[in-house]
Amino acid sequence: MKIQNSFLLFCALASFSAQSQNSIPVVSINPSEIISNEFIGNGIEFSAYPHADTESSEWGKLMTDEKWKMVFDRVSFIKPKIARVMDQANWRYLKGFDASGNPIVDFESDQMQALYKLLDYCEKNKITVILGEWGQPYKVHDTHLNLQNSFTGANDQRWIDLIIKNLNHLLNVKKYTCIKYYNLVNEPNGDWATTDGDFEQWKEGITMLHKSIQKAGLDKKISIIGPDATSFNNPRSKYKGLDWVKQTALQIPNLISAYDAHDYPSKESIRSGEFQKTFGDLVRFTDSVHKKPFILGELGIKGDPSSKEHLGDKFTSVDSQLSVYDYDYGVDMADALIQAMNAGFDAVIAWDLDDAMHTKDDKGDKYQLKRWGMFNSLGKELTDKKEDENLRPWFYTWSIMTRYFTSDMKIVKLDHLNIEKVRATAGFTASGEATIAIANNSDKEANFTIDAKKLKLKSKLNKYLYTESKRPVDQNGFPIPSEKMSLKENSIKVSIPAKSVILYTTYQ
């Protein structure tokens, strides 16, 4: 009887062991299941510091050569493939009007020199630029210009002509080839936009801009992106939130070369996966109507600030997200980026790079900083806190996912990853390079195997690890690999801790 019981116990243990081994999911990467075949890459919102770029700006010329170098060094590690550079005519080149009401422009102004510094960097580093203006020129933070009633809207031909003058100068005189898209009005469906949600006004402006670009012979160098709409519903708008994207695809698909939208999802919608579903449906719709690149032009996370250390900070405006100081913002942004790529976006742009770029309503009040950045390059100068210039946690995950998903990659689907709150995406190149990013937004460790045989990966991998207790960096605070791996049989055994991110890449 004892022998029989022992035998039965042995069989049961053997069976349990086999089941435990077999219970580890196998996730496969199939290069034929392509999500994005027009992948541009990920990037950043990048502004030329309108409050600190010249001696005459609100803060004076705080953006010294030393400060610019710090910013460019950090951007060089991120290696953005795309940058959204939004501006205002009256911040840069519009200096007023003559006696006949004609605009006075100055393309050699100190303010334009700051913009050239940024565009020179993008040109040198082959960064695709979306250029645009927040809205029609009006009195924002200029005390010497009164432009409030100078233009009547996005469909004012005088403003369109002014834009064409600027584009002609940038493309033909300065010869920038990095500027690929033009964005007319930021978030035109919002009640904060100069269009105030008037779709017909915006559409007419787009039509006028398209004709003017063609007439000026610039259509081979630049095209229009739109609608740049946010998911916010403006009750005065004919269409709800993201329906602007659908109507753009249905009504004026031949006037734009790429779709774009903005979103600030809640942490809950990211962690549940609802974010990917919403935008996956939208991308599929636009693809079915008129397929073209689709860019998520601003991505940040809304919700109540969670960083208790910075609540009540006297320099922080209500238009801020203090979670940027917290570790878990790096997990949530990585998770959102993975979902956005899996939804079919061809590029995703983070809002934003640096707290020093913008203030509430861009009035230049240093006590109204928009705190959304990966750092504050003017921490010492504006807040008397040098440590505010340090890199924040989410720089880690956004930088590696931007740096190692290159523009020549195809983004492909991972099959059978059915672990709750664990998401992954992968990209590969024709030359055999590959990157895989994984976010575990659950409260427990996840284990699975990635079968990458069909990718035929190179034998060496760098593994980057982002956890609360371990995220290796170099002397600059830039991520470095936690491990260098040798692949066996083109499979990767993954053990990812709760609330963490792992990135594998063949790039050395």
TrEMBL record:
Residues 1-20 form the signal peptide. Keywords: Signal. SUPFAM superfamilies: (Trans)glycosidases. InterPro entries: GH, Glyco_hydro_b. It comes from the Bacteria. This is Glycoside hydrolase family 5 domain-containing protein. It comes from Flavobacterium ginsengisoli.
